[in-house]
Write a structure and sequence with these properties.
The protein is mainly beta and 215 residues long. The protein is 7% helix and 34% strand. This is Chymotrypsin-like protease CTRL-1.
Length: 215
Amino acid sequence: MFLKKVSLRSAKDKQHFCSGTILNYQWILTAAHCFTFIRSPKDLVIQYGSNELKPLNPQYKNVERIVKHEGYNPTVTIHDIALLKLETPLPIYPSIWHVQLVEDPTTAYENKEVILIGWGLNETMGSLTSRLHKVSLKTITLAECRLTLLSVIHKTNLCAGGHGKGQCSGDSGGPLMLNNKQIGVVSWSLKPCAQTPGVFTNISYYIDWIKKLIK
């Protein structure tokens, strides 16, 4: 079970729209683009403690603060990373429920076997998965990603998937894992889902930013 992961919900109707991971008892890591329409913490809750999208007894936490990276630019989708501070701490959590982050930005993520975890749509225009799923992907170089997507890919990105395997709507903000550590945050992809590589925010470039905020 991947209980490090949380579901971001509208406070009004409790509908899932993005994902995140637990950094510690009061901070959640996710993507900045998740808050294009959710502007206030009061409009947001997180569901935690279950791999089910609709558990029998859902547990929610209110959010005190949304911190989007100050350099986030939706026009070119750069610095697509954000933190959420919860109003009250999560209940007693063993340390294994806190995600570990890869911190070395010099790591070359080329042809690596990685794991994407999420509740996203099972296909373009499909439905959200009822239980947390994971899929094995291969990373590609940024140069190959640029050629394939014919788009701006920044040095602070990672690319993985394609050929029918990868992210879809509802996976945004969720984790890309390598050897049980999180290396990426789901940022964007082209439609139809999973036919071309997905783009992720490379967490290692933001370690200092994260540590400064959650200390």
